[in-house]
Amino acid sequence: MEIPYIVTPRKDTGLFNSKIAIWLFLASEVMLFGGFFSAYIFLRLGADFPWPERTLPVLPGLINTFVLIASSVTVVFAWASLKMRQWGKFQIYMLITVVCSFIFMGLKGIEYYVKFHHQALRTMDWAVVEGHLGNVVKEGVHVDHEHGPKDEDLALDHNGKKIEENVINYETTQITFNTLRYERPWVEEMIAHAAEEKATIELAARLELQTERGKPVVFEKGTKLDLKLLDEIKKAHLAGHRNNQALRTDSLRESWREVHKANPGKRDSDLAGLAKVDDAAIAKDLMPEQPSVAFEVKPAVVFRFAPRDIQEANGTLRDGTALAGKLLESPMGFHFVDAIDFRHLAMKVTERVGHHDEAAIEKAIEESWLLKENHELAEIWEKQQKALAKLEEFLASKGKEPTEKDKYRINWQEMAFYADPKSSVESYDPSKTYAMPRVDENPKEKFFGPDYHERLFPHLEVPRNQVQFASKFAPAWNTYYAIYFTMTGLHGLHVIGGAIVLAYYLFFGKKMYLSNPEWLANRVEVGGLFWHFVDLVWIFLFPILYLM
C-alpha cells in the first residue's frame, strides 16, 4: 500500500505529509524555548544576586549569528537548486551549510572551554574574585610569580595530571574505608601517593571473616592496602550479611507463626511487637560482618582532596571513607586575579541598612578581607577609585552617573591597566571613552579572554576559612550560568541534529535524487524549515545572553 501525499501536496492544504509534521514539531519547539525565555526573564527580574551583564565574549557570539544567518540562506539556495535539478549547485550550497554548523559549534566549544577553566570565588564577606588558579608545585620549589612555575616543577597526581591550588590537605595517620562504598580511583591515588612519600598503608587489626559458613578467611594485621584486599573483605562482608539476614528472616517468620497460633483470629496490626528474632537460637550460625575496615598510615602522609570530596570538619570523604589525623592549611591559590566584584557585598549592605548608603558600602568594601589583607589589590582599588572620581565628575556634567558595575567591579581589562606600572590613572580622560580606563584587547583575547603571558595580574592566596563558595564558570556558580549552559547547550544539540540530517541529504541523497528529485527537494525543504528555526532561536539567545 502506497502512502499518499509523500511527494505531491494535498489539494485542500497544499502541504505534503512531512511538511505538516515539521510544522507540528516546530510548534512544540516554540513552546519549549518560549518557556525557557519566559523563565529567564522572571529569574533575572527576581534575582537575589547581581545579575551578570555583558560577561560573555561578544565577538564570537556575533560571528556565530552571521554564520547561522548565512547557513539559512545557503540551505534555501540548496533547496532551490534541487527544484531546478542542479545537483552540483545543491552539493556546494549544502556543503557550505554543514561547514557553517561546524564553525558555529567550534566557536561555541571554545567559549565553553574558557568558561570551564575560569575560576570564581565568593568570600565570606560576599566579595567575588575571578581568575585562574595556580598549580601545586613540588615541595621546596621556588616559584617566580611573574612568569609562573615551569612544568617540571609541578606536582602531578598518579594519572600524570596537574593539581590545581584548590585542594584540601589532610595529614592522615589512619584511613577507615566503608567496605561497600570505597571509591576505587581514590584508593589507587592514596596507594600511589603513599608510595611516593615512602610510607605504608597497612591493615590496623587482624580480621577473621567467612565467605561460607564454617570456612574462615583471615586477614593478618599489617597486610598492605590494595584493591584486591578490599574486594576480598567486601566479598566476605557481603557473604556474612546475606547469611545473617536470611537467618534473621527465617527466625522472624517462625516467630510470627507461633504468635498467630497463640492468638487466633487477630490481625497483624494487633500483634505488632510480639514477633521477635530469637538471637540466641541463631547465634551459632551467624557469620561475622565487616562494614568498615581501618588501615594505619606509617608515617603520616598528607593526602590532597578536592573540596567537594571531603567534609573538612570531620575528614569524611563522599564515599564514607573516614580519615584520622590533622587538617592542614589549604588556601586557594590564584596565580592570576583578573577581576574583583563588590556588587554582591554592596547588595548585602543595602539589605542590612535598609536603604542604599554609599558611605556604609564604601566602609564595608574597605574593611573586606580582599582589600584589608591584600596590599596589591588595595592599591588597585585605590587607583580605580581615582578613575571613578573622574568618571563621576564627567557624567555629572551630563546629568548622568556611573553604573553599579563601574563603581563596584573591576573587569580584566581594567585590572590589567591598574596592575601595569606603566599605566597612569592621571592620564585617563573619561570624555574619550565614557568608561573606566582599560587596556586594548587583541583579537585572540576577544575569544579566549586575557593573555596571561602578556598582561600583568595580581596573585592571591585565599585561606580556606574565607571561602564561602567557589566554582568554575559552570552551572553551579549562579543561576545565570545555569540558564546559559542549559539554553545554549540545548540549542547546540539542535544545531548538531539538524547538521546531521542535512549532511545525510548531501552525502547519501543521490539515490533519492535519481529516483525522484522532488522527493529529495521536499525533504531538504523540511530540513531547511528546522534550520531556520534554529537560526531564529539563536537570534533571540544572542542579545539576551551576550548584550544585555
Structural topology:
Blueprint: H1 17-45, H2 58-83, H3 87-116, E1 119-123, E2 128-133, E3 168-178, H4 184-196, E4 200-203, E5 207-212, E6 215-219, H5 227-262, H6 279-282, E7 292-305, E8 310-311, E9 316-317, E10 322-327, E11 332-341, H7 343-353, H8 358-366, H9 369-372, H10 375-396, H11 404-408, E12 409-410, H12 412-419, H13 430-433, H14 445-448, E13 460-462, E14 467-472, H15 479-508, H16 510-515, H17 517-547
Antiparallel strand pairs: 1-2, 1-14, 2-11, 3-7, 3-10, 4-7, 5-6, 8-9, 11-12, 11-13
Helix pairs in contact: 1-15, 1-17, 2-3, 2-17, 3-15, 7-8, 10-12, 15-17
Membrane topology: Multi-pass membrane protein
Keywords: Membrane, Transmembrane, Transmembrane helix
Subcellular location: Membrane
Describe this structure in words.
The structure is a single chain. The chain is α+β, with helices and mostly antiparallel strands and 548 residues long. It folds into 3 domains: 17-118 and 478-547, Four Helix Bundle (Hemerythrin (Met), subunit A) (Up-down Bundle), CATH 1.20.120; 168-329, no CATH class; 337-472, no CATH class. 50% of the residues lie in helices and 15% in strands. It has helices at 17-45, 58-83, 87-116, 184-196, 227-262, 279-282, 343-353, 358-366, 369-372, 375-396, 404-408, 412-419, 430-433, 445-448, 479-508, 510-515, 517-547; strands spanning 119-123, 128-133, 168-178, 200-203, 207-212, 215-219, 292-305, 310-311, 316-317, 322-327, 332-341, 409-410, 460-462, 467-472. Strand 5 and strand 6 (215-219) form a beta hairpin. The two termini are 56 Å apart.
